């Protein structure tokens, strides 16, 4: 749905742009037709007055013409030689000619159009009809809409390119998982065969570790195979998840020089959410791995805790006492490809956020701290 939003926005903007052209064009045509009809009536009245031989025909025709001109909607004020209003039509307010607002409005009309001097009459101050006023603003509005459409189009093209790249990576991940399946199955069989035929305790211990590593490889292959598929909605105990990740890293962090301590804490009551256990474990491991990399070469402590923050939300917190994230880089830590490590790929945190926010409708945030780095995973549960 998030990926289709730019396309929907572009369609809406295009609809507004085309609709505005159609509606306003029809309005302009309708008003021009009405004006043409009035002009035709005016010509007919003039022709009738010319053919009428009565003494009052000319005056009647002029009065009739003035009424038709008033219907055109053009504001007009006629002032005499002393600048006093002598006649007015289509004013935006009702007031006598002696009202100061009439003279003030005449000056406003002069800003729109230069007054016309008529000998024996005075000056004619006129403004723009509603049609002309609308024509002045419509190009601006349509230009803004056009810019928005172009911007949305560029954004959609960029998102389309990103989607194509994600499809390629998804295909490669699934193909890698498929290719790993055959040798993993074969290695599992060979390890089981060795375990049945070797009685040496040291060799048996080595085989046990090999079985653990094979199981780990199978889980990694399973993760790759799940990329791009709808996430599962299984019951996941976050306490067990945090404890499992803690145990995994406890067996693999330095314990002598530059010792790294990995610890976990959880409430007594189970913290259960609906989600994909494979993907959630992957996201949590990515956060823990990022913290351990920050502690490499200096030692420190990594804490993984799970707790309920309110009746509808649970939180997993991954925190370390390492160098932390510089303030100027906090906004970029979740960008794909961004890494502060020379050999880093910048995928771990981006992948973790995508799993948490897009697949599980949760939140992954970097909590401001004075020391180290703290990441909070907030899920509905």
Structure keywords:
5-stranded mixed beta sheet, 8 helices, alpha+beta, 4-stranded antiparallel beta sheet, 381 residues, Heat Shock Protein 90, 17% strand
CATH class descriptor of one domain:
Alpha Beta
Structural category: alpha+beta
Assign the CATH superfamily of one domain.
Histidine kinase-like ATPase, C-terminal domain
Helix content: 55-70%
Overall pLDDT confidence: 79
**Strand line-up in the sheet with most strands:** 6-8-9-11-10
Report the total helices. Answer: 8
Question: Outline of this structure?
Answer:
The chain is an alpha+beta fold. The chain has helices spanning 5-51, 57-71, 100-112, 130-197, 201-226, 238-250, 277-295, 348-359; strands at residues 76-79, 85-89, 116-118, 122-126, 234-237, 260-266, 272-275, 300-310, 313-320, 363-367, 373-380.
What does this structure look like?
With 381 residues, the chain is of the alpha+beta class. Among the domains are: 78-127, no CATH class; 234-380, Histidine kinase-like ATPase, C-terminal domain (Heat Shock Protein 90), CATH 3.30.565.10. Helix content is 56%, strand content 17%. It is built from eight helices and eleven strands. The strands form three sheets. A five-stranded mixed sheet has the order 6-8-9-11-10. It has a four-stranded antiparallel sheet with strand order 2-1-4-3.
């Amino acid at each position: 749905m998030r990926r289709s939003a730019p396309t929907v926005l572009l369609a809406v903007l295009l609809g507004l742009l085309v609709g505005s052209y159609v509606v306003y064009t029809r309005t302009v045509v309708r008003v021009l037709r009405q004006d043409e009809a009035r002009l035709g009536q005016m010509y007919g009245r003039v022709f009738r007055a010319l053919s009428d031989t009565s003494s009052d025909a000319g005056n009647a025709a002029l009065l009739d013409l003035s009424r038709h001109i008033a219907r055109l909607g053009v504001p007009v004020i006629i002032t005499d030689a002393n600048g006093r209003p002598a006649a007015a039509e289509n004013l935006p307010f009702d007031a006598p000619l002696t009202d100061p607002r009439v003279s003030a409005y005449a000056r406003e009309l002069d800003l729109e159009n230069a007054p016309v001097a008529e000998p024996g009459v005075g000056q004619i101050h006129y403004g723009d009809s509603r049609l002309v006023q609308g024509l002045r603003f419509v190009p601006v509005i349509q230009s803004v809409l056009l810019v928005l459409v172009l911007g949305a189009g560029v954004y959609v093209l960029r998102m389309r390119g990103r989607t194509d790249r994600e499809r390629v990576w998804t295909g490669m991940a699934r193909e890698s998982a498929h290719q790993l399946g055959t040798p993993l199955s074969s290695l599992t069989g060979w390890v089981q065969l060795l375990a049945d035929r070797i009685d040496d305790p040291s060799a048996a211990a080595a085989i046990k570790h090999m079985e653990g590593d094979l199981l780990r490889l199978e889980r990694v292959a399973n993760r790759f195979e799940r990329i791009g598929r709808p996430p599962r909605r299984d019951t996941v105990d976050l306490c067990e998840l945090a404890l499992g990740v803690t145990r995994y890293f406890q067996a693999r962090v330095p314990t002598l020089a530059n010792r790294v301590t990995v610890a976990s804490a959880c409430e007594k009551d189970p913290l259960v959410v609906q989600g994909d256990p494979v993907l959630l474990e992957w996201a949590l491991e990515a956060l823990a791995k990022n913290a351990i990399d920050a502690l490499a070469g200096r030692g420190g402590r990594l804490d993984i805790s799970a707790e309920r923050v309110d009746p509808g939300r649970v939180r997993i917190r991954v925190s370390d006492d390492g160098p932390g994230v510089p303030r100027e880089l906090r906004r970029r830590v979740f960008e794909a490809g961004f890494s502060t490590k020379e050999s880093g790929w910048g995928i771990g945190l981006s992948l973790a956020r995508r799993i948490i926010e897009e697949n599980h409708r949760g939140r992954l945030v970097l909590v401001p701290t004075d020391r180290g780095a703290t990441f909070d995973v907030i899920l509905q549960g």
